[in-house]
Design goal:
6 strands, globular, six-stranded parallel β-sheet, DNA polymerase, domain 1, 9 helices, single chain, 211 residues, 46% helix, Rossmann fold
Length: 211
């Protein structure tokens, strides 16, 4: 039986990925590298250090701390101005919270940035636990962040349903022993995981009882 739900953040709860991709592209362009859609797909769901390592093999980047400072100088004000939750998100998490379902977020984002995004869109209050990629030893597709989310909820990973949008994230949740649903907001269907184009509380509750 499934007792808790663990959400990824970017691409599942908040529509942050187009903003983040644009900012990474701007900073990379300053270093003479033109990021492609394939680059974005390769890095989806990875931690920021892993993303930095990926691009450092392709471009002459500033040292990590300087690179991240340049990103944050653009990202923080742009998120504060433009970041939105997906239209289905608040009704879903508020509906699950009203049912007393333990909820967590397990993200590759740094904890501070993750908390900021959830606060900006007004979702932080619904979650019992929030885990960032900088709080665990290994990022997605390793299971660490999902295992830590389950630990903080006090629920076995096998009793958690994970909601993910990236292959790296879904692999991490599955490796943690969680049942996994992929949100494919472009309407595509995962060949591996159960997939939907949007989330609702009723749908998630149905999946919880189905397993």
């Amino acid at each position: 039986m499934i007792d808790a739900v663990v959400f990824d953040c970017d691409g599942v709860l908040v529509d942050s990925e187009p903003i983040a991709d644009a900012i990474w592209s701007e900073v990379l362009a300053e270093r003479g590298y033109e990021a492609t859609e394939a680059d974005g797909d390769a890095c989806r769901g990875l931690t920021e250090p892993a993303t930095y390592d990926y691009f450092s093999e392709r471009a002459d980047l500033l040292p990590y701390d300087e690179h991240m400072a340049a990103l944050d100088a653009l990202r923080v004000p742009r998120f504060e101005r433009d970041l939105k939750a997906f239209p289905d998100t608040e009704e879903t998490v508020s509906g699950l919270a009203a049912q007393g379902i333990p909820l967590a977020v397990a993200s590759s984002s740094r904890r501070q940035a993750l908390e900021g995004k959830l606060e900006i869109v007004g979702l932080r209050r619904y979650f019992d636990a929030v885990v960032g990629g900088d709080e665990v030893e290994s990022g997605k597709p390793a299971p660490d962040v999902f295992l830590e989310a389950a630990r903080r909820l006090g629920v076995p990973p096998s009793a958690c349903l994970a909601i993910e949008d990236s292959d790296n994230g879904a692999a991490a949740a599955t490796a943690a022993g969680m049942r996994t649903i992929m949100v494919r907001r472009d309407g595509s269907i995962s060949p591996i995981y159960a997939s939907v184009s949007e989330v609702t509380a009723d749908l998630i509750l149905a999946w919880m009882w189905r397993f």
